[in-house]
Design goal:
single chain, 176 residues, alpha+beta, 9-stranded mixed sheet, 9 strands, binds coenzyme A, GNAT family N-acetyltransferase, acyltransferase activity, Acyl_CoA_acyltransferase, MshD_Acetyltransferase, acyltransferase
């Protein structure tokens, strides 16, 4: 399927949020507020415009979206900047055609280019390992809330980048 992946622009915000809302409509584990999360993240310092990407059909219709935003890994007085992958959304009619994968690969590449060192995701353990994500527990990086260990994953963008990092992840205020 031919799609174009590009940075989200201000004029896309409404359409993006509609896509996010629709993508999560039938997801059991969802609280159906992911579109509001996207809206809130954009208003914080954690928002990186270059890491909010939309997938479009050739006629420019938006059918998917991904957002990576800044978070911190905190240990005592030490802080390490990382990114949260949340959320990633594809309209139900276009799922399982590789759109989600293209969005994730493109976002990873862009994050690397911007110099970020790691990405953290809370998600399905059958999905994210194909992109290189591994259990965060392998690095002594803990979630700030109770989640199944295998669902909390990390991707190093440079080998060994997290070797000396430990601590608890602190999400931006948009997540609270
Ligand atoms: C998750 C999502 C973004 C994937 O996008 P997509 O375009 O369907 O994904 P792709 O076509 O690239 O990949 C499809 C693969 O992902 C798997 N997959 C999709 N959603 C999955 C999920 N929630 N859990 C586990 N695997 C999932 C499919 O089983 C399929 O695997 P296969 O290739 O082995 O058959 C999309 O399904 C979606 O928007 N879901 C609703 C919102 C959501 O749950 N987002 C993720 C949580 S942040």
């Amino acid at each position: 399927m031919e799609i174009i992946i590009r940075q989200e622009q201000g004029l896309d915000y409404q359409a993006t949020e509609a896509v996010v809302k629709e993508a999560f409509r039938h997801v059991e584990q969802s609280d159906k507020t992911e579109h509001l999360l996207v809206n809130k993240i954009r208003k914080t310092d954690a928002f990186i415009p270059e890491l909010s990407l939309v997938a479009c059909l050739p006629d420019q219709t938006i059918i998917g979206h991904i957002m990576l935003s800044e978070i911190k890994i905190k240990y005592q007085s030490e802080e390490t900047v990382s990114l949260a992958l949340a959320p990633v959304s594809v309209l139900p009619a276009y799922q399982r055609k590789g759109v989600g994968s293209q969005l994730i690969y493109k976002a990873i590449k862009k994050a690397e280019q911007l110099g970020y060192l790691s990405i953290i995701v809370l998600g399905h353990e059958d999905y994210y390992p194909r992109f290189g994500f591994r259990e965060a527990a392998l690095w002594q990086i803990q979630p700030p809330f109770d989640v199944p260990q295998e669902a909390f994953m990390v991707l190093e963008l440079r080998e060994g980048a997290l070797e000396k990092v430990q601590g608890v992840v602190e999400y931006s205020e948009a997540f609270s």
